[in-house]
């Protein structure tokens, strides 16, 4: 088989992009250009989705008063996360929630109306449908983060927006139709700190071959130790 010229990219270059993708706490006030936000969302369009449903919709939030409203709703509905993974004196006091100083938010929504146009199992099996919708949105969301890294931007997952009590208030605040599911929100900007090194499980511990038994995977004790030693 003859490969077409330019049909592949450098693996190490790709892995460098993957390694640089981190979740950041706190951002500088420098604005993110509309062009860069557009590029981030454009990358999401190429993600795979169940029966090519492309269920995603994106709401860009850059107006300070609207951002403040989102921050307030998250703060009211969820406690501030622990002050871990940050460096620099006074970082927690600067932004306890870890995303409020970002110059742009991108809300990722899922259009649940696509369900009725999918294969029979998506219309009759609630769990299967939910899995497919979430997987589709997750793929698009990861594309967005990698695109942001390639542009020299820092991002943060703001999963609290999908917490049911917060989601309902956000939808009312932004005027989002009931058919839309709030999946995630990305805070994007330029970071003012370097995160701690990422702890990774060794490749040899997570790859299994063929028919596996319980002994091929971590024990309950080993799972607990992973978090206790973190």
What does this structure look like?
The chain is of the alpha+beta class and 230 residues long. It has a single domain (17-197), classed as NADH Oxidase (3-Layer(aba) Sandwich). It has nine helices and four strands, in the order H-H-E-H-H-E-H-H-E-H-E-H-H. It has helices at 11-20, 34-44, 64-77, 91-94, 120-124, 126-150, 164-174, 203-206, 220-228, and strands at residues 56-61, 104-111, 154-157, 180-189. A four-stranded antiparallel sheet has the order 1-2-4-3. Helix 2 (34-44) packs across helix 6 and helix 3 packs antiparallel against helix 7 (164-174). The N and C termini lie far apart (46 Å). 24% of the residues are buried. The model is unreliable at 84-93 (pLDDT under 50).
Question: What would the keywords be for this entry?
Answer:
single chain; 230 residues; alpha+beta; NADH Oxidase; four-stranded antiparallel sheet; 9 helices; 4 strands; 12% strand
